[in-house]
Records
---
Amino acid sequence: MAVLTCQGVRKEFGGRVVLDGLDLTVDEHQVVALIGASGSGKSTLLRCVNLLEELDDGTITLDGEEISDPRVDPDRVRRRIGMVFQSYNLFPHLSVLENVTLAPRRVHRRARADAEAQARELLARVGLADRADAYPDRLSGGQQQRVAIVRALANSPRLMLLDEVTSALDPELVGEVLAMIRDLKADGMTMVLATHEMGFAREVADQVCFLDAGRVVEAGPPARVFGEPTQPRTRQFLRRII
Ligand code: ADP
Ligand code: MG
């Protein structure tokens, strides 16, 4: 059963086509890695899925519901999706615990004690229990990004969208964030991640999609896409970056 289906997704900015009839299917518990040059449309696709952009054509379906229908309430959809960005976007004036419990309390109307208990458990699971009362500026970049992921998980999402979540980190901090994503996969979380960490995509993804000019040019298991790419554009891209 597909959690996410994108069919013929088209997005233009000022007459420039950025997503050009893009198709993508993500099954339950699957991890899909989006790779491709800067500007190929990875972030725009993730933003479309989270209804941060309106489509110019095509449909997006989440758990069988056509969420790209303009009559759908975006807030209701976003409650089922966790999104994490390159720049962690934690609220600087809120503690770690407050950052994580904000949406569960405000959006999901959970009781404070209940939301805090869940947040502390999630933080403990990623080794951040002792940072619950700290403010973001007291945390390393890797810790902040792990909190941002915990914050997204606190909504118990059906689907996680991760957009270059290690790109802003110092190299020595990348590993702890990747380890967390690895654990999420082991827990069965369905994820779509845009990444330029090819080694990680190879290891963690069930399916790799190579985007070029707003289309999926090649998709398949990582061993196949990285090992025997069939499309000249994929080969060219991989030659340049590996
Ligand atoms: P990627 O994440 O693969 O690097 P993006 O989805 O960010 O690619 O961008 C794809 C193209 O769309 C780029 O050329 C970018 O400049 C353009 N683009 C993205 N967002 C906007 C926007 N809000 N307005 C205009 N152009 C945009
Ligand atoms: Mg991007």
---
Amino acid sequence: EKVLDRGATAVAHPNIALIKYWGKRDERLVIPYVDSLSMTLNIFPTVTTVRLVPEGQADTVMLDGTSASGEQRQRVIAFLDLVREMAGRTEPAAVDTRNSVPTAAGLASSASGFAALAVAGAAAYGLALDPTALSRLARRGSASAARSIFGAFAICYAGRGVGAAADLSSYAEPVPVAKFDPALVIAMVNAGPKPVSSRAAMRRTVGTSPLYRSWALSSKADLSDMQAALQRGDLEAVGEIAERNALGMHATMLAARPAVRYLSPATVAVLDSVLQLRRDGFAAYATMDAGPNVKVLCHQADAARVADTVHGAAAGCSVVTARRGPGARLLIGAE
Ligand code: PMV
């Protein structure tokens, strides 16, 4: 088949929220209920190429070398439709995306995935978007992706109002943090796909959990405490706030009907080992997303010790250490 020349390749890294996003107030526009704040990582990049193909062909979506199907393919095509609508274009596209992290295992593959797709897709279709607009676009794929447009620390606003006003005001932006460069030790206790998608789990939590509202409220206080702690470069405070915010989010899920439980016995074993590290005098704090894996925030000087300890806590878990990383960027293609 003849392939048009227009194509673009982008790279983006996952991010881990220190203040979590959980729950959408508008599912179609992907507008969160709460503001969130994250650290973009320097590991597990996603590299995505979008090439325009001649009219009449179907969109194709390759994920790690195999043709995507079902829900995964649908989400990418819906995203391309949005980019095409914004660009006033109609050409179909061939999307090739490579994750270096297990997909859908609560390791933020959707964040790096949709951030890379937003940057590559906008460039391929000739859309010149500023970082805020790119972040709003990435949000439509996955709200956590809005934050991966930026490196290091980023805050994502839930936005104000409804409809177009909400869409315009919900985006991420960098949080300038001068001298805070912690390690994030990731304990992968299970890299398989999660049992319930975060989309479905959020819907159920918002719809049925009696704890959701109070967590969302306490999250506001957590966010302002977190911003102050980051500015001070205070790892103990950052870690404590991140840990309570994440445990609170999981509490909202556990109280959903029926319960959404991502935490496994191995997760709890790792959490116990983090408590033990603290008793032994190490600053180590845990956060968990929509999956059983645990991310432990600590000083870089302690990272090897923390990695050893969590590795010993859960049989067969693999451990990798990250730190703050770069924002999404175009590698090849038209600006
Ligand atoms: O990957 P998403 O955008 O569907 O949502 C994931 C949400 C959490 O990872 C659990 C928290 C967060 O803010 O990243």
